[in-house]
Write a structure and sequence with these properties.
Layout: H1 20-35, H2 38-60, H3 92-128, H4 130-144, H5 148-159, H6 163-189, H7 193-200, H8 205-241, H9 253-260, H10 269-296
Helix pairs in contact: 2-3, 2-10, 3-4, 3-6, 3-8, 3-10, 4-6, 5-6, 6-8, 7-8, 8-9, 8-10, 9-10
């Protein structure tokens, strides 16, 4: 393991397509073992529950999250409004669930965009090496030198406020993170015997990268993706809290928390419920990330 990628497990295993049945049984056994992992199973349960609340429950209970009721302002949690109402009499349950859906989808978009672009850069730089790879990685190091939230605020200031611009801003933070991790792992894998054999057999460079190198660095990408999913949710919420994310009246967890900060003593539920949902989501994805790391890292002793 190199110093540049201390947490990335690398599988130096040549793909063997001659035993499909054995591979299926191996995957099934690995899945059953993973489901017995306490952190992974608990995290999956939490994420599944929150996903149901955010994506399915609003379809079963169609309440308009922007409908105002001046006669019900600051109503506490009750049978009519399970999470109470806000300063405009809007149902907080509907706003939290729709806002959570927005935050989760934005977080997924951030990590997918950052992972795809960063992985592509890391694979190309790591496989090419030489002056070309060195130059790319020095640019990546330059981006890593900036504090993440400062870089996100800079990009958002250039592009302007809005959810889409916020996604691009935070994805710009993840690109160098994925690129640095994948490049270090690619450098380790590119010199292995089966990669050299494929090169000598006349395989094209794109085929070598996609067929022989990418599968051996994929485990680290998966772990990093789940880890950054929770962080991306926090940063999406932070941009919404300071008014650079989703714009009113569209609900989003950060915007709801910002609305409730002025009424924390009068209507505690406006900040408690969206904060609780966000906290559970971050805890859930981090538990999943810890479990995947334990299962995908071959250097760990699983007993």
């Amino acid at each position: 393991m190199t110093e540049t990628t201390p947490a990335l497990p690398v599988f130096a295993i040549e793909p063997d397509p001659s035993q499909p049945a054995a591979r299926r049984w191996s995957r099934r056994r690995a899945m059953l073992r993973a489901l017995r992992h306490r952190s992974l199973s608990l995290g999956l349960v939490i994420c599944a529950l929150l996903g149901f609340l955010a994506f399915v429950l609003p379809l079963l209970i169609p309440v308009d999250p922007v409908a105002q009721d001046p006669m019900a302002t600051f109503s506490p949690p009750s049978a009519l409004h399970l999470m109470g109402t806000d300063a405009f009499g809007r149902d907080l349950l509907a706003r939290v669930l729709i806002g959570a859906r927005t935050t989760i989808l934005a977080s997924l978009s951030v990590v997918l965009l950052g992972a795809i672009v960063g992985t592509a850069i890391g694979l190309v730089a790591g496989y090419a090496g030489g002056a070309f790879g060195f130059g790319i990685m020095r640019l990546i190091d330059l981006l890593l030198a900036f504090p993440g939230i400062l870089l996100a605020l800079t990009v958002t200031a250039i592009l302007g406020p809005g959810l889409v611009n916020g996604v691009f801003a935070i994805a710009a933070i993840l690109v160098p993170v994925f690129a640095r991790l994948v490049e270090g792992a690619t450098v380790e894998v590119r010199g292995l015997p089966y990669v050299e054999a494929a090169r000598c057999a006349g395989a094209s460079q794109p085929r070598i990268i996609l067929r022989y190198i990418l599968p051996n660095v994929l485990s680290g990408i998966i772990v990093l993706t789940t880890t950054w999913l929770g962080i991306a949710a926090l940063w999406i919420t932070a941009l919404g809290f300071i008014g650079l994310g989703v714009q009113p009246p569209t609900p989003e967890l950060g915007a709801i928390l910002n609305d409730g900060q002025n009424y924390i003593m009068l209507a505690w539920w406006i900040t408690v419920f969206p904060g609780l949902f966000l906290s559970l989501f971050v805890v859930g994805v981090n538990l999943v990330g810890d479990g995947l790391r334990d299962e995908l890292d071959p250097t760990l002793n699983r007993g």
